DNA sequence: TTGAAAGCGCTAACAG
DNA sequence: CTGTTAGCGCTTTCAA
């Protein structure tokens, strides 16, 4: 199958150690020899076997990026951020998608570790990481996104509580009193914190939190649609606004509301979270809490890179600021 | 850093070859020994080093998937298809995003080959693959998506010509005569074929193809917006419908039209291509040519898998059928 | 400046 | 059933 160092050494009439040195740019090689070797290697189309390199150098120049849902544009946006930061430093990133499934998450983690990635960036599906216990000791350096951790790992988080608080407060300022919370994966950090922000805003404005109007399921459009549909059917429906924990959910909520022939925002106002690209479409114009997605990815890689280079452990948490983008659904 | 076979061999008091056998499920190991070994390995949290395994077995149980734009939901949908098919067969997939950049594409290809992936699935940015010449000989088996190739590789394609033809014919049947074509990356197969389908439909209906109304740029929203904006500004604007080569483009086109206070579909009708999730939102309701995205991914992997297993080379091309989904923009 | 040789962690003959 | 050993492709001492 593949061309090895030996092949090109034979062709060049030198030992393969010399070829190795020439190709990896060691200084102690005769310039002429080096040039000759490089030329031959190119002509023959030699590609070093990164596997073997990794085996001896104990580094693979790859990182793993685990995300829960590639079909939610929020995550691809982050992925682009890490990918580009990584490529700049010569790292390849392996993107893995878990569908919010703990088992798949575990499986990928295993694979990635076995593949000896140098580092890991995770946006875990769940706050509990007991299923990830085994990695604690033997895994490579890692950075979490949107997940608070209590050990020595770093995490990049958005101030979810604040974002949610702003969103709900905005609704309250618009005169809404009966505001629903529609959330995603119950135990995810994102969900828990955004719910907290919601409650905080309600309480500080002396508004009651009615549990009939606090519902959660998955972070996707179907869930939003389904939950809203059910609420709308409730006997004494009286909601005038909903804060949904991400934009995909919001899109589902909107759909359900439309089907009831209610008007947005006149009858029901909506605020989302994330500010995915599609939230700004002229037909959608979703009011939402914006996160610096691309930047989060970039920072995540940069922090990871520092760790790999053994630099100071830095801050444990990097907290980014959300910002409310007011459009036409509120 | 890591725990090796030897460590657990020492602990178990056997040779490390035995450990290897026990753990990889060879039959010729004493049941009791095997159980003991497995227990110890688990307790110690042993993870085999896939790098080393790959080195000796010359297979890595990984495949590479290269896509041009992770932020266009079309590709994540395909990605999910391959990922899930892959995981079912015990393969991990490494997703790489090129941003339609040939150099990045080349770079990833290199990395992936160096990492000894067992196979490759590509949705190339460009019809020309001269920049990929070097892989022809030494690369692992590969499958192309949406790209016609003339060598021995397989490719999964949608009948783009037919899809485009249907789309345009639908517009013609609605009475439109002045129909624009707004395309993406000029040299991509998708663009070229969809353009061909457009022309074919026009010609077969005795409608002239006006080059002022055949424009292309990138396969994204901004391009669609920009091109449409320009057309709208043209002195003798007379278009009544546009066929855009993908949905992202269509979204941009819609936005431009909206800003001109024209009505869709009354003043201008629009048909897209792909049927991404967002095309079906109630606010969008984009008429579009639907592709079986998830399925394409699945098939791509399955075909690749057959190749890996050395099974018959099968068909060179697998052509899938598009289907026009008529919604409210036409 | 170069070659010889050890060894990274593992699998797969080959013996026993 | 289990141990010994060669070798996957490469980098890196150590000598020459």
Structure description:
2 copies of one chain form a homodimer. Chain A has 330 residues and is α/β, with parallel strands linked by helices. Chain A has helices spanning 5-12, 16-23, 31-44, 50-57, 74-88, 102-114, 135-138, 160-173, 189-204, 221-233, 247-259, 293-308; strands at residues 62-67, 92-97, 119-122, 142-145, 154-158, 179-183, 214-216, 241-244, 269-274, 287-290, 317-320, 323-325. Chain A contains 12 helices and 12 strands. Chain A has a 6-stranded parallel β-sheet, sandwiched between helices. In chain A, helix 5 (74-88) links the parallel strand 1 and strand 2. The mean pLDDT of chain A is 90. The interface between A and B is large, with 55 and 55 residues. The first copy, chain A, binds a DNA duplex (16 and 16 nucleotides) through helix 2 and helix 4.
**Gross geometry of chain A:** elongated
Structural class of chain A: alpha/beta
**CATH H-level homologous superfamily name of the largest domain in chain A:** Response regulator
Largest beta-sheet details of chain A: 6 strands, parallel
Task: Provide a short characterization of the protein structure.
Chain A is an alpha/beta fold. Chain A is built from twelve helices and twelve strands. The interface between A and B is large, with 55 and 55 residues.
What key phrases describe this protein's structure?
homodimer, 330 residues, alpha/beta, 434 Repressor (Amino-terminal Domain), Rossmann fold, 3 domains, 6-stranded parallel beta sheet, 6-stranded mixed beta sheet, 43% helix, DNA-binding
């Amino acid at each position: 199958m593949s061309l090895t160092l030996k092949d090109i050494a034979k062709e060049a009439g030198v030992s393969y150690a010399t070829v190795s040195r020439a190709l990896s740019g060691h200084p102690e090689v005769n310039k002429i020899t080096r040039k000759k070797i490089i030329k031959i290697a190119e002509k023959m189309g030699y590609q070093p076997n990164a596997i073997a390199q990794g085996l001896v150098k104990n580094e693979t120049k790859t990182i793993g990026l685990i995300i829960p849902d590639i079909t939610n544009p929020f995550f691809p946006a982050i992925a682009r951020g890490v990918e580009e930061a990584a490529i700049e430093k010569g790292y390849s990133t392996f993107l893995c998608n878990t569908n919010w499934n703990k088992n798949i998450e575990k499986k990928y983690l295993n694979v990635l570790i076995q593949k000896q990635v140098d580092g890991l960036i995770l946006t875990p599906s769940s706050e509990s990481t007991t299923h990830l216990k085994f990695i604690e000791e033997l895994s490579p350096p890692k950075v979490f996104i949107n997940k608070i951790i209590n050990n020595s790992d770093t995490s990049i988080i958005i101030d979810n509580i604040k974002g949610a608080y702003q969103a709900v407060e905005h609704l309250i300022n618009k005169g809404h009193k009966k505001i629903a919370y529609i959330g995603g994966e119950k135990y995810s950090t994102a969900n828990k914190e955004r719910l907290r922000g919601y409650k905080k805003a309600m309480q500080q404005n002396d508004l009651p939190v009615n549990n009939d109007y606090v519902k959660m399921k998955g972070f996707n459009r179907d869930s939003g649609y389904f939950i809203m549909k059910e609420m709308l059917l409730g006997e004494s429906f009286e909601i005038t606004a909903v804060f949904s924990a991400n934009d995909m959910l919001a899109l589902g909520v909107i759909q359900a509301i439309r089907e009831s022939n209610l008007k947005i925002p006149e009858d029901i106002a909506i605020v989302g979270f994330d500010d995915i690209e599609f939230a700004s479409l002229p037909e959608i114009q979703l009011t939402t809490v914006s996160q610096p997605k691309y930047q989060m990815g970039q920072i995540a890689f940069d922090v990871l890179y520092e760790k790999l280079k053994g630099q100071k452990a830095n801050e444990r948490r990097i907290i980014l600021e959300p910002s409310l983008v007011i459009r036409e659904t509120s």
